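Review the following:
>
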Amino acid sequence: MPSTGRRRAPGLRREEVAQLAGVGVTWYTWLEQGRPINVSAQVIDAIARALRLDNDEIAHLFTLAGLPAPTVVSEDEVIAASLSAILDGLDPLPAYAVSARYDFLAWNRSCTTLMGDFARLAPHRRNMLWLLFAERSLRELVGGYDTETGTQCVARFRRNFAAHIGDPAWQALVDELYERSEEFRRLWDRHDVASNSSKIKDFRHPVAGRLRLASTTLWLADQPGARLVVYNPVDSHGRELLERLTCRTVSGG
């Protein structure tokens, strides 16, 4: 919007909202006043975009207008669908996509064999930090967990958290972990920050035994902070073990 000088109150003026939404000022005024006028879903959607409402606010606006709320597909769901084919094509290499908040977005069959089936978890619990510090199940599934692993994980998460201060979902995760895990509480209070890096990890699988895998991180350009992580065996023995595990899963053995 062009600058119109100093404003008496913050926010858009009524005529500015109407202009951005592509509707008449008089019609928009009647809408605000709750007059009995015909309102289409397309117009309500245009007003929601002009006001930059979030998903909950959009649903509330449609309810006020007496219209069914639209089905909103989250960015995480879009990413998960688009990555599925890529991840499946990487088998037998374990691979997964994770958001900046460390939510597991998608994973392939080999990852399930190595780290456990995240699909069995409630969607809001498919989070790496939660599985490491609250339920601690990921430590048992993956193995090779040490103090440095936890320290680096929390430090990388704090670095991402800086860009989401005030976001209810991010703060809720921190609050839950802070209450449930003494270790997370101690590491969070250190205020360490770190960037993501590739490294060789030791996995101790209950069936395959020890696996040494090198992790490679690929950043997703269309989703800030989201990344794809691929584990590649450092030797031919490790690759053979992964192939056996994948075949075992397919055969149901």
